[in-house]
User: Fold TIGR00299 family protein from Tindallia magadiensis.
Amino acid sequence: MDDTTGEMLGYTMETLLQAGALDVSFTPIYMKKNRPAIKLEVISEEDKADQLQKLILTETSTIGLRLRKAQRLVMKRKNLPVETEFGIISVKEARWEQIVKYAPEYEDCRKAAREHGVSLAEVYRKAEEACYQTEEGKK
Amino acid sequence: MDDTTGEMLGYTMETLLQAGALDVSFTPIYMKKNRPAIKLEVISEEDKADQLQKLILTETSTIGLRLRKAQRLVMKRKNLPVETEFGIISVKEARWEQIVKYAPEYEDCRKAAREHGVSLAEVYRKAEEACYQTEEGKK
Amino acid sequence: MDDTTGEMLGYTMETLLQAGALDVSFTPIYMKKNRPAIKLEVISEEDKADQLQKLILTETSTIGLRLRKAQRLVMKRKNLPVETEFGIISVKEARWEQIVKYAPEYEDCRKAAREHGVSLAEVYRKAEEACYQTEEGKK
Amino acid sequence: MDDTTGEMLGYTMETLLQAGALDVSFTPIYMKKNRPAIKLEVISEEDKADQLQKLILTETSTIGLRLRKAQRLVMKRKNLPVETEFGIISVKEARWEQIVKYAPEYEDCRKAAREHGVSLAEVYRKAEEACYQTEEGKK
Amino acid sequence: MDDTTGEMLGYTMETLLQAGALDVSFTPIYMKKNRPAIKLEVISEEDKADQLQKLILTETSTIGLRLRKAQRLVMKRKNLPVETEFGIISVKEARWEQIVKYAPEYEDCRKAAREHGVSLAEVYRKAEEACYQTEEGKK
Amino acid sequence: MDDTTGEMLGYTMETLLQAGALDVSFTPIYMKKNRPAIKLEVISEEDKADQLQKLILTETSTIGLRLRKAQRLVMKRKNLPVETEFGIISVKEARWEQIVKYAPEYEDCRKAAREHGVSLAEVYRKAEEACYQTEEGKK
Assistant:
């Protein structure tokens, strides 16, 4: 898309996510006639596809869309609340075969950082610490 | 492609479009050994594919290409000439189900901007105004 | 910065803007050892510089900052409320020497688009129309 | 700039170069509210600065510009026509202290490639060959 | 991926290439909540896919992967050693139908440039010269 | 630079870092005639500037360079070796006014990850844990 503004695209991303898109991203590209442009990519479940297509055609200037079915491998996710000095933080556990990893929930961390006047990095660190201690305690 | 220069790529884009490619774009990427590179993407009708593949293999340094059939959803396009103080400007109407949108034709606008010594934005604005007045007059 | 995550950077942008930065942007770059990285640029008034520097050093992993005084040319801005079928929309007028241009206020347009169930583009169009009619009426 | 389209930017680049800018480039960046944007950079001689500033403010949506004097180190350039099987090609010689390098003139190469139905790379190669043979012959 | 650092990604690229991936690249993208992110793309033969998937899930923070079979058109490659004043340099010949092109082997050129204290461009040039002389001698 | 290949640029980055540049980065940009290009930025101490300029002019196709003195704010750095189950890892401590942060040394972590067959993320985590325990122990 070389004739939709960044403002319109920011609005479109917000609208697509509210409407249930799983993932929305912008990739900077270069098109003919020296036009810097953006490739908009949207991942969604099949049943939402029609609605999201309409959204894109309405809110952006694009004349066409490419549609592609994708095979996805997704790790099993579980929510684990952990206690930290900043309160309870949700941690997302992801498992696939032997692989396990943990990631603190962004919105919880952000809220805690603002409330306690500490850096976001510090909240993440404490949440990860608590989480790994819990998990290692279980073993 | 990490061993074709920007000059060669600019020339390749021009050549591909002249040969009938529907769309050509460059995406900046990063490859091994600290090489900034470009991903060249070409969309074309199936019957032009062979010719465009030869073009890419001849004009760039690439050793291989990935080929993929894509399902496309394209809005119905129609040309509407509108009268403005800068002369006749073509406006492209695009329709799909309930969605209708208009976009002034770039080349006409550019020519008018240069001839009348006004900004391209002003020509676009007048063309859109005239276009929406025409369409709303019709209702 | 090649060792701060996108999540942390998104949080940092939000925090810098809240703290009074005039402008914050991310530029994708490539660094040594095949590291994709981000260049964070912040524009601010001189009196806010210290506070924003502290913020960057606290919230990101960066060890250093480059500081530069910049000479800026800024157009004179004025707010013009215009009436549209979607309610009152603020339009920003910008003037410098002979150059005048108008841009509808994003937040007003967004609110109107959501309330009236129309595309953001349509709200922008009506706001621009109303604005230019007002201005041309004045002449 | 997050509210100028790619089409407008392509037109602006063309206009700036015609007006005498030495160099014009677009850098993809990311701004607040999820807006993909473009940073427009223009290099020019000081005496052209005012005219180019007006152009940018007229043709794009930007409200302000940053101005910076830059110290430049430029190699001494000379034009060397060389004979190739595709006709005469201009080659640019660049010298600075002990460093000498040659680059075939793009427009000549492009013309020759089209006229003779060969790849641009082949024309470049022959022009470089002829050029280095000439230079080495001189030694 | 918006929560893996550039350092981790650089390490991941190295590990994937060691494990037999044919191609690994990073594309800068922009995701929700103002997060600059990276799209990691890996091309591999089918039999290596499982192993590389495990690697990506282990070394990065990603929760899921998209998998896609691709049809590839690859030119026939052959290694041609050529003699230059800097020693023997391998040149890769690539053929497909009528198209033939040559590219000096990077690692050989790099080694020669360092050993002989000349620019990489000069080594490439001599290697290409030698290569085309050989090929044209054969005709 | 729109006429230097990614291979040459990767080599140039390596050479500049070996020659003592503090920082080298590539920024993808777009230039005239549809050329995707790269902006090469090098930060160095003043006494190395001449040598690095020569390197750039020799190894790349660029005809000119922009030179700029920059004012830098750099945190005080110290090396702290910490003991982990993977051996001794160096951790970099950075201090400025009230701000303190720690970052495990990449090369040590990488070596440990390979030797012990664990993910790089796990080594980083253990090193950070050990580091913060040490620091908090000191308080």
Summary: The two ends of chain B are 52 Å apart (CA to CA). Chain B touches chain E through 21 residues (CB under 8 Å). Chain B has a mean pLDDT of 94. Chain B has two domains: 6-59, 76-138.
